[in-house]
């Protein structure tokens, strides 16, 4: 079994743990388990999903596709992967038991310093000829490092103003915003350009790139407006979501000439996964346009169902959707294995069901209607399909001796 394949199976193992934690969180709404601290478990769930699944899957794919191979480079990346995985396992154990405390903070800090070293290695060793891929990858890494400034501000925020302060909350949102919209999504775009082998005019790319970066920066005004009341913040965010829409349209125009050719070569399951990810990305951009309206901008934060649904749309719909597509296309996940294919379809079905329930119940709260009958029971049952899908993917690929391209 190749090194990258081992890495990916570890990533799916982390993904399964995060999904099981999420399932337990939803079970708590039905029949609380004695000794389980909901907030501590939530911290564990979110950290493992972000840093154990998405971060490490991007680590593996960036190394596989965009880094030249020799024994010295392989040794450095392999060692770094396992150090990072050690940090993930530490958080996996520490957060559900103690929340933010000595051990969880220690392992989180180890992960941050590992990510800095990863950024340094990629920056040093990448030999990417394609200007769009190079710019997108480096920009994603810059946003990854930038996002951690929010984490370093948490200590001073607690010491100076406490955990309930606007400073503390904005520091958390700074980290999350630039992780999701900066590091994760832009890294996915770099890999997408590589997979599609897109050759575009540099001027056309930079036109898209400037709008992309501007939209990523200005839309941070929305989470700031949740904690700081200032009339200019909604305006900045309004401009930001329009800029983001323009960037999305420009991206579509860049992809369109190559998309038909790329799509025609895909297997059916790959077509489903990539279509799903692109649809989720489109939906994200359109949903963010709605927060131009002040009333909707307010409820986007106040109604928890919307918050969870939107985060899951980015994590499971867009990012995980593209990651699954890349893994299928690289034959890390067996495309001809029917069990694996069914696992992916079951995972996507679970995602659609949970998103429908979250957003439907969110609209019920917004319109002051009653709760959906058996809402928590249905949400728990729908979440089981996510876990089953991941288990099927792991089981169908763990013992297969397929080679990477």
Helix content: over 70%
SSE pattern, N- to C-terminal: HHHHHHHHHHHHHHH
**Mean pLDDT across all residues, rounded?**
91
Task: Give the DSSP E fraction (strand runs of 2 or more residues).
Answer: under 5%
Extract low-pLDDT stretches.
400-405
Helices, by number, come to: 15
Structural class, judged by helices and strands?
mainly alpha
Summarize the topology.
Elements: H1 3-28, H2 38-66, H3 71-98, H4 102-125, H5 131-152, H6 154-160, H7 166-196, H8 202-218, H9 221-225, H10 232-264, H11 268-290, H12 294-302, H13 304-329, H14 338-366, H15 375-398
Helix pairs in contact: 1-2, 1-3, 1-15, 2-3, 2-7, 2-13, 3-4, 4-5, 5-7, 7-13, 8-10, 10-11, 11-13, 13-14, 14-15
